[in-house]
């Protein structure tokens, strides 16, 4: 397995990565209080129905990845190859104002998970952020993607925020609120 910088020639091959998400559990986000006395609590719970999401690269994300790989936008991208087949990818963009590297997408092919390739790519992006003198690396997940949330915990990230209306006005009800993860570099 080889991890290398991604190129524009890799763009079409990224869609071949089977990024399917499977989970029978989620992080339940509970709200209590009101106004400035508001609190949130996370609990792991079973999903009503097992989540099987193909997690395909949507058009917006594909466009952003294309902009980064062609050099039209600033960014950082890695791919992992096994026998000349791309089995994982990580794409990130620096946020100069916040002095952080924002991981936009990380995906490991279903057949190559739990072999350390995702963790190696995350650690390489953390090293890249340090070399770029950034103060943190951030990434967002959904509460219903428990495998991704557990992976980020294992990589040393902390939850630094949440958004209960990122995708709709009913994210909380749909058990898919957005969690914002943060890895401080100092």
Task: Report on the architecture of this protein.
There is one protein chain. This protein has four helices and nine strands; from the N terminus they run E-H-E-E-H-E-E-E-H-E-H-E-E. The protein is an alpha+beta fold and 186 residues long. The chain has a single domain, classed as 3-Layer(aba) Sandwich (Aminopeptidase), CATH 3.40.630.30. Strands 1-4-5-6-7-9-8 form a seven-stranded mixed sheet, sandwiched between helices. A two-stranded antiparallel ribbon has the order 2-3. A hairpin with a 2-residue loop joins strand 4 (76-82) and strand 5. The longest helix is centred in the middle third of the chain and has 15 residues, at 117-131. The two termini are 31 Å apart.
Task: Summarize the SSE layout with pairings.
Blueprint: E1 2-5, H1 11-14, E2 21-32, E3 39-53, H2 59-69, E4 76-82, E5 85-95, E6 100-108, H3 117-131, E7 136-142, H4 146-154, E8 158-163, E9 178-184
Parallel strand pairs: 6-7
Antiparallel strand pairs: 1-4, 2-3, 4-5, 5-6, 7-9, 8-9
């Amino acid at each position: 397995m080889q991890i290398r910088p991604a190129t524009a020639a890799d763009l079409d091959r990224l869609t071949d990565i089977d990024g399917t998400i499977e989970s029978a559990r989620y992080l339940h986000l509970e709200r209590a209080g009101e106004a400035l006395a508001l609190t949130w609590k996370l609990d792991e719970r079973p999903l009503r129905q097992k989540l099987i999401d193909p997690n395909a690269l949507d058009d917006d994300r594909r466009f952003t990845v294309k902009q980064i790989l062609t050099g039209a936008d600033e960014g950082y991208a890695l791919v992992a190859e096994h026998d000349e087949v791309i089995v994982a990818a990580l794409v990130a963009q620096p946020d100069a104002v916040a002095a952080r590297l924002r991981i936009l997408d990380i995906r490991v092919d279903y057949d190559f998970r739990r072999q350390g390739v995702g963790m190696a790519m995350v650690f390489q992006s953390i090293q890249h952020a340090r070399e770029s003198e950034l103060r943190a690396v951030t990434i967002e997940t959904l509460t219903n993607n428990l495998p991704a949330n557990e992976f980020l915990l294992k990589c040393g990230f902390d939850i630094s925020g949440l958004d209960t209306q990122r995708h709709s006005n009913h994210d909380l009800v749909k058990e898919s609120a957005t969690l914002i993860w943060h890895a401080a570099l100092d």
